């Protein structure tokens, strides 16, 4: 295995996924103390990232699954999930006194996390495609293996951030507000940067 490619892959992953740390920390905080929530966040992150890899690899070898004009519209996924999370937070604003578990007692679902990860990966796909196209099959396999290993590191870092006392208190107090705001903002940024709807 070429260590140069491993280093390049690690750097590329870090640069294209730094924004995922905040989103992961929010998802882990949302599921804090809820049975199986952390496993669902990790599973969702892997599902979403595997979808990103599948599209990027397919496009990199010439099978363009998503036309470039479609990628910006992936911003509708986190936007819709943010609106849904905001609506649920607004509806359950008084439920905390009656039912501490609230309406989403299980925390975030794997498919919810996967959808946000995939939608947030439009820029990843745009960066990965030319790299995969010029790396050959062996190089692409190394990139994919390094990326998948680093997803675990990212999940651990997100959970670490969500469990630090100061951060955990802030996320616990403001997470129900922050998650919808971050998801809606993420969706709007993806839509605007891609020029969706003529933005």
UniProtKB/TrEMBL annotation:
The chain crosses the membrane at residues 6-28, 49-74, 141-162, 174-192. It holds the Pfam family Cad. InterPro entries: Cd-R_transporter (IPR004676). Keywords: Membrane, Transmembrane, Transmembrane helix. This is Cadmium resistance protein CadD (Predicted permease).
